[in-house]
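Hi team,

As requested, here is the filled-out complex form for the heme C run. I kept the field names the same as last time so the parser does not choke. Let me know if anything looks off before we queue the next batch.

— J.
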Amino acid sequence: MAGQGNRRGLTFPIFGFAMVLGVVATIVLVRNGRTADVEPETPAPALVAASGRQAHRDACGDCHVAYAPYFLPADSWRAMGDALPEHFGVRLHLPVTKQGLVLAWLRSNAADAGHSLMGAEVMARVAPTDRPLRVTATRWFRHRHLMISRSTWALPVVATPANCPACHHDAAQGIFDERSVHIPG
Ligand code: HEC
Ligand code: HEC
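And here is what came back:
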């Protein structure tokens, strides 16, 4: 009698403990799955600095030049990230960790991050209420390209002002100086 009582006394706590563990594990799994779906985690700053540039080139340089972060303010990059997978009429699916890394790198090197002269030039023409979603929609871009005629923008080799390499042959390397500019036509 005494032995039976002991066994029952042990079985219930162990069973109960296993149940609690199961419930906790399920909650953790479900929560992780859900947060990973909606919101890419922000990686540590050191990781962003070390591998952000390369990740940006890989993820953002296939369809157009990988636009440098200092051409847009951090809020613009954030808005672009929030809109994904919708991306200017195409669907852009990136692995969650890569998306988090690229966007963190873009934001920390944005026009208003204070790391570049070009960024300061861009910000000088961004009004407080502006949140341009395109480099080509910034007042800085329009101002800097005022000398280009309508007929040049309309050339098939240019196609869109977003096509920087049509005129800036070293745009992929981030070089835009006078010597590397050639207006087609
Ligand atoms: C699957 C192709 C594709 C990939 C990959 C891609 N984009 Fe784009 N992107 C587009 C298209 C299409 C446009 C619209 C081009 C136009 O209107 O001339 C665009 C436009 C843009 C513009 C606005 C250009 C302008 O007019 O100033 C920015 C900024 C931009 N993309 C950033 C990114 C970033 C950042 C990434 C990587 C996370 C990325 N893109 C990856 C297809 C792509
Ligand atoms: C149709 C040709 C054309 C296109 C397309 C074009 N640009 Fe330009 N860009 C020019 C010309 C011309 C200048 C003036 C060069 C000068 O001042 O000597 C210029 C100037 C610039 C400058 C200033 C360079 C400096 O040394 O101060 C930057 C930066 C720049 N462009 C970036 C871009 C970016 C980014 C894109 C794409 C989103 C782009 N451009 C698309 C023709 C173009």
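Two things worth flagging: The CA atoms of residues 154 and 160 lie 8 Å apart. Confidence is low (pLDDT under 50) at residues 1-5, 32-36.

Thanks,
J.
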